[in-house]
Design goal:
Largest sheet: 7 strands, antiparallel
Distance between the termini: 43 Å
Structural class: alpha+beta
Mean pLDDT: 85
Number of strands: 11
Order of helices and strands: EEEHEEEEEHHHHHEHEE
Low-confidence stretches: 148-154, 159-164
Number of domains: 2
């Protein structure tokens, strides 16, 4: 029986990965990053979209936390693991693990790790107007070069379709990486966080995805592509942007339209 404020989670997926982006069993000792995603139906029509999203993502988090209670990293003496959302960043107490939430339309996602983490799911297309306003010049340069990657098509119509899809995917990937990074790093300056140059991880992640699709007929929901920011990458970014931060590990799950940024251990 549903309560006066209730949502139904649909197609819930609980996933785990190691620090290199390789999928692991949920309760494996090698798992370092745990993700959950779902879509939802609002049972109570009195809930507006924002209220339904907030309720749905917390239901999903409870589902993930309950499953992970059997993991050794989450077992505590005489205390159940609970969500502490009294201040940001949210954490699981008493273990202190950070947890990050995201939602888009009727989809929600959350991520847990022992290190600072951020997640972003995006179903809406990021427009060229938005990218020109917020993206770094290096990112815009990359986006402007993408159509040239499709010149191999002899049919102009086919090339245009492929180019449009590639540019849209690249814009959305950049946006998700930015949002996830802002959450992971606790950046309080939103605009400067959005303008941080993430062209290197975005290019590599999208290249890995395209290579995967060239050799595989299907894209599975658990397929994750990873990029680990090196010290060299960090120094290049901080030299131009004056924005020092620890290296991040990025995960991109194109099937689920989400990206994760986690502080590298």
């Amino acid at each position: 029986m549903t309560t006066s404020q209730s949502v139904n989670l649909i197609d819930s997926h609980l996933l785990a990965y190691d620090c290199h982006g390789r999928q692991q069993p949920l309760l494996s000792s090698n798992a370092k990053i745990w993700l959950a995603s779902a879509s939802f139906d609002s049972v109570n029509t009195a809930l507006n979209e924002q209220q339904a999203q907030k309720l749905a993502v917390r239901q999903l988090a409870s589902q993930l936390i309950s499953t992970l209670s059997a993991h050794s990293a989450f077992q505590t003496a005489h205390q159940d693991v609970r969500l502490d959302d009294s201040h940001y960043p949210y954490r699981l107490q008493p273990v202190g693990y950070p947890i990050s939430f995201s939602h888009s339309q009727r989809s929600v996602a959350c991520a847990i790790s022992s290190a600072d983490i951020g997640i972003d799911i995006e179903l809406n297309s990021v427009s060229a107007k938005v990218s020109k306003r917020f993206f770094h010049p290096n990112e815009l340069l990359w986006l402007n070069s993408l159509p040239q990657l499709s010149l191999m098509h002899s049919c102009p119509k086919q090339a245009t379709i492929k180019q449009t899809m590639s540019v849209e995917q690249a814009r959305n990937l950049l946006w998700m990486l930015k949002e996830a990074s802002i959450k992971a790093l606790g950046t309080d300056q939103l605009i400067s966080g959005l303008k941080t140059d993430l062209s290197l991880p975005a290019q590599q992640l999208l290249t890995d995805y395209q290579q995967h699709m060239q050799h595989n007929l299907n894209l599975e929901l658990h397929n994750a592509f990873s990029y680990q920011q090196s010290l060299t990458d960090k120094q290049l970014a901080t030299k131009s942007d004056n924005n020092s931060h620890p290296p991040l590990t990025y995960l991109y799950l194109p099937y689920l339209n989400l990206a994760v940024a986690a502080v590298s251990g």
